[in-house]
Amino acid sequence: MAQRTAVAVRTRVGGQKQPVAKRPRLARAGGARRGDATRQVILDAAEQCLAAGDFDGVSLRTIGEAAGVDIALVNYHFGSKESLVEEVTGRRAREVHDARVLALEEARHAAGTAPPDVEAVVTAFLQPWLKRISSGDAGWQNYNRLLCRLTMMPKYLPLVSELLDPTALHFINALRAALPEASPESIYWGYMFLLGAVVQIMAGTGRLEQLSRGLCTTDDINSAMREIVPFVCHGLRALERTATEARG
Amino acid sequence: MAQRTAVAVRTRVGGQKQPVAKRPRLARAGGARRGDATRQVILDAAEQCLAAGDFDGVSLRTIGEAAGVDIALVNYHFGSKESLVEEVTGRRAREVHDARVLALEEARHAAGTAPPDVEAVVTAFLQPWLKRISSGDAGWQNYNRLLCRLTMMPKYLPLVSELLDPTALHFINALRAALPEASPESIYWGYMFLLGAVVQIMAGTGRLEQLSRGLCTTDDINSAMREIVPFVCHGLRALERTATEARG
DNA sequence: GAATTAATTCAACGAATGATAAAGACCGAA
DNA sequence: TTCGGTCTTTATCATTCGTTGAATTAATTC
Questions:
Q1: pTM for the whole thing?
Q2: Between chain A's N and C termini, which has fewer beta carbons within 10 Å?
Q3: In the 58-87 stretch of chain A, whose C-beta falls under 7 Å of nucleic acid strand D?
Q4: CATH assignment of B36-78?
Q5: Which of residues 39-58 of B touch strand C (CB under 7 A)?
Q6: Are A101 and A108 contacting, i.e. CB atoms less than 8 angstroms apart?
């Protein structure tokens, strides 16, 4: 098998490379196109596969097979493997960003004239996220793991930055207002601690379950919030305290 | 080109698969073998490459080229790509584990009869790690990123568990003694928070630098410790407090 | 219904991958 | 020197990868 047919003369017309932009340009009146369902199926399958294996390890054939579509369709709809991963991550990133900003706005209204306190900011940051993680849609854990892996690969820093910076700057500002005594540097550190602590544990790595031999689980959002929020909030307040000590 | 020679008849003697164990079994008297230098060079190059790209994306050819050795040597010394990554991670894991256990022992001696407090345990956990990270040896950041990515891939959970569980259980015990009021569950959560917060920020992802536009940096171990230790310790103590509140 | 456009399928391309067999180079011991 | 084992090189294997041209089917427009 795998015998190459001796004929197979293929005239390549255009010598140039043009690996992108195959998707038609105009949307239909109603907005929904015929291939939109296919796009969604591919995105879902890609997300699932990419969260399991790593980027280069997951082949378009695997994704296509999981989605039940032909391989060539992936390239037809997304142009390349690279832009596929961008759409996979961007889809989730936009949704959770919007929900977080909305939650923060609500916290601002609830707080009245004063800025929301640390608990309110942290809750606005975590609630939309954890709610989705424990919604039963495994896609959110897949997304978290994928994003965390991308963060750990320097060459994806621009993509990660594009995906996460808007949210980060938004909540760093809110934290600054909630912790007026903390130095600007400490706020950045604190935000990274907050993010790291939660990502690591809520990405569905199975580490918590394995270490505790089933005693703990990340499935229940309420118990998760009960552990996470106090840890993070007290940690953040400590940054304010050390700043005061350093000054005094 | 890439024209297959029509002859090229190769009799495969053993039909079975035996992809492993090419390395000779016995060590020489002096301990040092002729190929040990080669092994080290390959391990270093592999670590560097694996931290940049992802596991399946980095080819043995890339690693061999970076190490300045022939590709076949990689398979000769390590048997397969998979066992190469195990050796790469195991080498660092053992070193930092031993250093941490030693630091914890010293903290126990310093504390006398009472168990070391939270600050002492956390410092024993972080100091050996951060010292290596900011030692100038970029290999430690590479190792951190690689390990974090492996943690985010379910199929590597057994390997990650083998690498990290000994350290984890060691320090979870110490934390339990330092936080007698906290529930067993909270200790597991707290350890994961501790690990996550620090890994995320000390893996050299560049996120902290990017977000703070250069205001913060993870290069200086002293300033890093000054931010991390208070955050983590106050967070851990908060777990104890919530447990008391829940009980009362 | 014809023409046009979008979506899908099929088959193959060239390039790169991990692996290995076979032969050569090196080296200490007899 | 010769021998036996360790280490290295060469050349190639079968397989899989991302991508693409061309043909086919389905939907929309005139």
A1: 0.85
A2: N
A3: 58-62, 71-72, 74-76, 79-82
A4: 1.10.10.60
A5: 56, 58
A6: no
